[in-house]
Please model this.
Amino acid sequence: MIIEKIQTSHKQYSIQYGREKIAFSLSFNHRKSLKINVHPDKTVTVVAPKNTSLENIILRIKRRAFWIIKQKNYFERFQPLPSKRLYVSGESHYYLGKQYRLKVRKDSGQGVKLIGKYINVYTPNVHDTNEVKKLLQGWYRKHAESIFAQRLLFCHEAIKRIKIGQPPIRILHMKKRWGSCSKSGEILLNTELVKAPLHCIDYVIIHEICHLKIRPHNKEFYKLLTRCLPDWIQRKEKLERVVI
Ligand SMILES: [Zn+2]
Model:
């Protein structure tokens, strides 16, 4: 058996595409076609067949520039997809990744109950959509508080080998993020995350716990995240499709 030693020398280049600058590291080996990879930390690597001219490589990268930018944006995205809700009967609403139908029911008291495939909202004022919204949001918040606290315990235990103390969590409404972490080491979770499946909630919690060790989204961060949660990309992809 012949084991070929492939000599690679990585060089850094960048090209301008519209307003975007695409930086990439270039190496050569014995492959037959050019390979462009966009990594979760948004770095771009290009492997070209030996003897390909730099001019040709740049031309090829420019042709794929739109796709490269799209991939980079994809890895940047970590935010919910909002949908306009009217808070009327018949509308779908999500809870832990499952879809439920909203039923607004006239009642002397106020309350929310999950029964079968329905989220029942009880109120004396069935046409007051603001009140229905408030009742429903209160219900989501109450469940978010207990579920996130349970999942934090579970996740923290699951990755205890990375030795990060259990962080406090705070639940709040965020327009553009599922989660983040504060400078003081507190994990902030979007109330709306309770609409996503449990395995996606765990992903956000573990992602944020990893940030307590490594702040930026760099290679080390993704290495740590992969160590803690090898299937994080699948969970993230699922989360990208969650409509709130
Ligand atoms: Zn992050």
Remarks:
- Residues 1-8 have pLDDT under 50 and may be disordered.
- Residues 129-158 form the longest helix (30 residues).
- The chain has two domains: 11-76, 92-240.
- The longest strand covers residues 20-29.
